[in-house]
Design goal:
Strand content: 25-35%
Largest sheet: 5 strands, mixed
Radius of gyration: 25 Å
Number of helices: 7
Number of domains: 3
Shape: elongated
Order of helices and strands: EEEEEEHHHEHEHEHEEEHEEEEEEEE
Number of strands: 20
Length: about 400
């Protein structure tokens, strides 16, 4: 997300196949908790995309799995408490995790199980960081300008290490990370994405056709939203243009003010925006070239009532509930273990530390510091001049 907006692309991939439909830019990689670590014949350690799934699952599940996974590595390193997995609802077999890592990875590499487990996580983190880095660098964006958002049950175990790998110095762990996607759905609006393909030169000669297409799209969008029971006052009808330089095989989507009093000025503003985005994404812009309009789009949006905000209050304890040994940066550390709900607002915790909750675990490496915000969110920042 940049400037408060998620980025849309006009062409994505699903299962390796190209799909020419507007969609939120998402990159997926096979490095989940069940991703299997194995040695290739070349002696290279590979993690994923093969997964142990839920049954039999990682070796530590005790369901017959024998392949070492990312979850097993976290257990070996002390980052997951076998007695508090899923808030204690499921007990893990730490001995089975250690045996799987030792036999399948540590032994072939002549390493200690902890060293092998950390290697597994480094490979997994490299996969995650690589996908994020590619997404940023291809747009000309600097990782230092961004904050990494960690959500899901296992993300918190790797978020700070991933941010470190990319060069991001701030990580946010939101409240209820395991259900963040569900909350996103509750806060979503009704959207009808409509488009009309029309190839034309982006100059004054295109204005009559643009006016016609925008009128049609806005009318159709409003009709569909009205059919959904959305009152006119709650309807948003923004127009966008897919533009490219002549001869290109890809487009960039830019906003167009279809309701402007001066359509020519509105088109010039869209063209200027196209040049700017092209410069940022591809490191060059042909300012002297008149771009082409490939398609006109509308995201007819119906604003829905949002759930009421619920105040959050920590239970208020600055003391860790336990301490245990964790392995990080090639050596063992004593890490304080905290229960998330029992923290104190404003409390700062220096890593290494572990924050546990029923459906997630967050690992704060030695070179990081965590602060508990009054909202219930946790914010980790890289400590200047501190190394592991």
């Amino acid at each position: 997300m940049s400037e408060g907006r998620t980025r849309l692309v006009t062409e994505g991939t699903v299962d390796g196949l190209p799909v020419r439909l507007p969609m939120i830019e998402i990159r997926t990689i096979g490095s989940g908790g069940g991703s299997i670590a194995r040695m290739e014949e070349s002696g290279r350690l590979r993690v994923g995309p093969e997964s142990a799934g839920a049954k039999p699952g990682p070796a530590c599940y005790g369901r017959g799995g024998t392949e070492p996974t990312v979850t097993d590595a976290n257990v070996v390193l002390g980052r997951i408490d076998p007695q508090f997995f899923l808030g204690g609802a499921m007990r893990l077999d730490a001995a089975a995790a250690r045996a799987a890592v030792a036999e399948r990875v540590a032994k072939p590499l002549a390493l200690a199980p902890e060293e092998a487990a950390e290697g597994i996580l480094r490979v997994a983190v490299s996969h995650m960081a690589g996908a994020i880095r590619l997404s940023l660098f291809e747009k000309g964006l600097d990782p230092e300008d961004f904050t990494l958002l960690s959500f899901g049950g296992a993300s918190g175990l790797h978020a700070c290490d991933t941010a470190d790998e990319i060069g991001i110095g701030r990580v946010v762990f939101p409240r209820d990370p395991g259900t963040l996607s569900a909350w996103g759905m509750l806060y979503s609006d009704v959207v009808h994405a409509l488009a009309r393909a029309r190839l034309m030169k982006a100059d004054v000669s295109a204005l009559p056709a643009l006016a016609e297409l925008c009128t049609e799209l806005r009318r159709t969008g409003a009709e569909r939203l009205s059919a959904d029971g959305i009152a006119p006052a709650e309807q948003l009808l923004p127009i966008a243009l897919d533009m490219r330089y002549p001869g290109q095989a890809y487009e960039i989507q830019v906003p167009f003010d279809a309701a402007a009093d001066n359509p020519e000025a509105a088109l010039k503003a869209s063209i200027a925006r196209f040049h700017d985005v092209h410069q940022a994404q591809y490191a060059h812009a042909e300012m002297h070239v008149v771009p082409e309009i490939v398609a006109v789009r509308i995201a007819a949006t119906g604003k829905l009532k949002k759930p009421a905000e619920h105040a959050f209050a920590f239970e208020g304890s600055a003391e860790p509930k336990a301490r245990r040994s964790v392995y990080a940066g090639g050596r063992s550390h004593e890490a304080a273990v905290y229960e998330r709900a029992k923290l104190v607002a404003g409390l700062k915790i220096a890593g290494p530390a572990i924050i546990e909750e029923a459906h997630a675990t967050h690992f704060i490496p030695p070179a990081w510091e965590l602060a508990a915000a009054p909202t219930g969110d946790l914010i980790a920042t890289k400590r200047a001049g501190v190394t592991t």
